[in-house]
């Protein structure tokens, strides 16, 4: 299995790139944000538990998120590899992911970060909020809170993967195709 972690701040373009990369490399795309939103919409037990955190732009607690993630991975026993989008977002999630992948005889092959300046990203999110219906994209305060969550809890993951020699940064500014090309170069060299 070639498992890739897509990494980046809110709005960095993880979901957009994932759509292209999953086709190109025949990977299973798992977006924790999408799975949570699906559960919210269908008002499942998981959705009810996640809603207050998501609507505020807070991270959903690790235990709940990790359980959901493992359930999703287990739905694809014959996959070529997983493209993780939005997971892990904390050190504890990264450790849980490593432990889980080890238990199934696999590992993270690479973490690829899409980099862009905060001002550009906030503009992108506010634009997306106009049409996506996502409450967490419509309010500058909630967006700020997501960046704070990112800086405090998610940014330390760069070090975590750097220490394992698995961290690759890619310039996330440019056309969608250009960025797919940059990410592909990293994957092709694995
Ligand atoms: N790995 C995770 N851990 C905790 N909460 C998560 C995780 N992934 C998604 N969420 C929740 O879902 C929300 C939306 O996720 P996502 O669409 O990936 O956000 P963004 O566009 O900000 O990167 C997050 O703000 C958070 O509340």
UniProtKB/TrEMBL annotation:
Domain comment (free text): Consists of three domains, a large central CORE domain and two small peripheral domains, NMPbind and LID, which undergo movements during catalysis. The LID domain closes over the site of phosphoryl transfer upon ATP binding. Assembling and dissambling the active center during each catalytic cycle provides an effective means to prevent ATP hydrolysis.
Assembly, per entry: Monomer.
Enzyme Commission no: 2.7.4.3
GO biological process, one term: AMP salvage
CDD domains the record matches: ADK (cd01428)
GO cellular component entries: cytoplasm
Family statement drawn from the similarity comment of this UniProt entry: Belongs to the adenylate kinase family.
Function according to Swiss-Prot or TrEMBL: Catalyzes the reversible transfer of the terminal phosphate group between ATP and AMP. Plays an important role in cellular energy homeostasis and in adenine nucleotide metabolism.
Keywords, comma-separated and alphabetical: ATP-binding, Cytoplasm, Kinase, Nucleotide biosynthesis, Nucleotide-binding, Transferase
MF annotations from Gene Ontology: AMP kinase activity; ATP binding
UniProt KW Kinase keyword: yes
Location of region: NMP: 31-60
Principal subcellular localization: cytoplasm
Annotated catalysed reactions: AMP + ATP = 2 ADP
Binding site for AMP: 32, 37, 58-60, 86-89, 93, 134, 146
Superkingdom of source: Bacteria
Protein's name in the database: Adenylate kinase
Subcellular location: Cytoplasm
Pathway in which the depicted protein is active: Purine metabolism; AMP biosynthesis via salvage pathway; AMP from ADP: step 1/1
Annotated binding of ATP, by residue: 11-16, 128, 174
Annotated InterPro entries: Adenylat/UMP-CMP_kin, Adenylat_kinase_CS, P-loop_NTPase
């Amino acid at each position: 299995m070639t498992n890739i972690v897509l990494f980046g701040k809110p709005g960095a373009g993880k979901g957009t790139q994932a759509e292209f990369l999953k086709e190109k490399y025949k990977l299973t795309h798992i977006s924790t944000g999408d799975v949570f939103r699906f559960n919210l919409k269908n008002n499942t037990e998981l959705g009810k538990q996640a809603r207050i955190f998501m609507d505020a732009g807070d991270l959903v607690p690790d235990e709940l998120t990790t359980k959901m993630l493992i359930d999703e991975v287990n739905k694809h026993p014959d996959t070529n590899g997983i493209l993780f989008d939005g997971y892990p977002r904390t050190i504890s999630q990264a450790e849980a992911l490593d432990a889980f992948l080890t238990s199934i005889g696999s590992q993270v092959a690479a973490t690829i970060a899409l980099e862009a300046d905060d001002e550009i990203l906030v503009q992108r999110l506010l634009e997306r909020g106009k049409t996506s219906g996502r409450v967490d994209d419509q309010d500058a305060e909630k967006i700020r809170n997501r960046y704070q969550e990112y800086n405090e809890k998610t940014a330390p993951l760069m070090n975590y993967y750097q220490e394992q020699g698995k961290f690759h940064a890619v310039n996330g500014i440019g056309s969608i195709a250009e960025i797919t090309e940059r990410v592909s170069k990293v994957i092709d060299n694995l």
